Amino acid sequence: MAQEAQAVSGAENGAKASPVVFTAAKPWLVVEAPKANDAVLFYKAAFGAEELSRVNDPKRKAELELPLIRSAELKIGSSVFVVSDLTDDSSSPAKSAVSGLVFCLETESVEAAVAKAVAAGAVSEDELTEGEGGCCGGVVGKVKDPYGNLWLICSPAKKCGDVDA
Amino acid sequence: MAQEAQAVSGAENGAKASPVVFTAAKPWLVVEAPKANDAVLFYKAAFGAEELSRVNDPKRKAELELPLIRSAELKIGSSVFVVSDLTDDSSSPAKSAVSGLVFCLETESVEAAVAKAVAAGAVSEDELTEGEGGCCGGVVGKVKDPYGNLWLICSPAKKCGDVDA
């Protein structure tokens, strides 16, 4: 009976019955292109960061020796963060990240999570898109919180070939 | 023989023999005062964040209903981040954090960690200080990476009364 009431309440809200569960909130460092590779090397040398995975930009520019980094996942202690080259590529999930902090939230319920954030006062940016990279490998929603920070809400990046640890 | 050479090399660098081990790298969101409490409430409502601990500013201003937040630790999934009110209090470790990302790195070897980061190209900011808060409860060093981000290098915050989970 209690379960039934809950399901009805969920339907009334227009939300999916499944609860929103986030598995991680990874901060994203966006570096002026093409310096992200240097930044990754620096974080390894300075802070002992371990590179978990890397996705390069498929559109490699002729004048660049190395491809731009779409996202590299680094781990320090128990914490994971993402480093990317900032480009004007409109398909990059980090393109709105000119300044301020970007968090990457992972969940299986992207649409419900965006709705919940907006109900709490966040502003939705753009439509849901398909992402690619260490953080956002599937559906990506974007919301800006009332304090100027961007939160990417993404399904987990299952497509990424993680480096065997 | 190899160990001896290593020890001599370490002494020559002026660094401690103990290796630098970071246990966590927590990002820090600095919010225009006095909105950090609203921000914490928002992150709970929007993203289901769990509050692990909170340290208020001891210098409560008369015109404020609530004390300012020096640092509140929030957890989403496996990730922990810190939220603070941005004030002009010179004793706050977050005072240089007007813009850009702040990471809080936890280690038992603060001095050696700062030296290693500087050797890798970071710029040391300020002397070592004593911090207070969810992130920086002991000795605090500050370095700026070549990409404009501030890294606080701190001994773990043992003095903070963590909420029992």
From TrEMBL, chains A, B:
InterPro entries: At5g48480-like_C, At5g48480-like_N, Glyas_Bleomycin-R_OHBP_Dase, VOC_core. Residues 25-156 form the VOC domain. Coiled coil: none annotated. It comes from the Eukaryota. Pfam families: At5g48480-like_C (PF22650), At5g48480-like_N (PF22656). Signal peptide: none annotated. This is VOC domain-containing protein. It comes from Salvia splendens.
